[in-house]
Amino acid sequence: MGRIVHVNGDFLPEEEARIPIFDRGFLFADAVYEVTSVLRGRLVDWPGHVARLKRSLAELAIPMPRSEAELLAIHRELIDRNRLGEGVVYMQVTRGVADRDFAWEAGMTPGLVLFTQARPLIDNPAAARGLRVALMPDLRWARRDIKTVQLLYPAIAKMRARERGCDDAWLVEDGLVTEGTSNNAWIITRGGEIVTRDLSSAILHGVTRAAILNIAAALGLKATERPFTPEEARDAAEAFTTSASGFVMPVIEIEGTPVGDGRPGPVTQRLRAEYIQRALESLT
Ligand code: PDD
Description:
Blueprint: E1 4-7, E2 10-13, H1 24-28, E3 31-39, E4 42-43, H2 46-59, H3 68-81, E5 87-94, E6 111-118, H4 125-129, E7 131-137, H5 152-163, E8 168-173, E9 176-180, E10 184-188, E11 194-196, H6 207-218, E12 223-225, H7 230-234, E13 238-243, E14 247-254, E15 257-258, H8 266-281
Parallel strand pairs: 7-8, 7-14, 11-12
Antiparallel strand pairs: 1-2, 1-6, 3-4, 3-5, 5-6, 8-9, 10-11, 10-13, 13-14, 14-15
This protein binds N-(5'-phosphopyridoxyl)-D-alanine.
């Protein structure tokens, strides 16, 4: 694929990049990550992503591998070296390298890996089509507010969704939707109320989620942060997901039931358009 990636201070061709087998990210999923989207060769919502990275690291007592300014400079250099116009930058910070032992020593040097993925984000065909989502139990650990690389269950859930002819899964715990496998879940009720689950350790505190709440407020739309049931979702007028890589993605079917008229909803499409417009006006 010929990409240039970043590993611990070095920019090198992806085929030459190596990480040690004793990296705790590899052995214990002892690592956190961020995915930041890129439009016109610049970063979307960078302040939100770096703030969440710092929070995830602090929760796990992993030090920042570089200053905020240095991390931004690495992102920019990687974008330039790969001539990335539109796509994402993936950044992972691991606790570091030590012989295999569940307990870790204080003072380890964190590891840093970044790579780019080019893909159309604005003219994304899935956004025009809308997503079909399946419902599945949420079997992840209880600290989903920390953006760790423990992604085996979300990966399995997405595979099972595909086997059932769906694009993704929404996860359900105690009779309530938590979030999607890699996105936050939203519904718009028939009464026009925009609903997404309130922040807690049950969900990732999505950067795009926060932006959409601000946009809804700016547009004078009623948005409420509260949990909702699968039944309420299947009875909704519209539904969508938010994430850095998908922005706002319409959901047109939930567990076989069409949402609204089974096509991307008008409010969802408006929120997507507003998000993209504001993102283009505030690139880093
Ligand atoms: N996923 N919830 C989960 C479980 C996620 O993995 C993500 C992001 C989100 C949305 O957060 P944000 O708006 O900050 O991207 C919610 C990224 C895109 C991924 O894993 O590729």
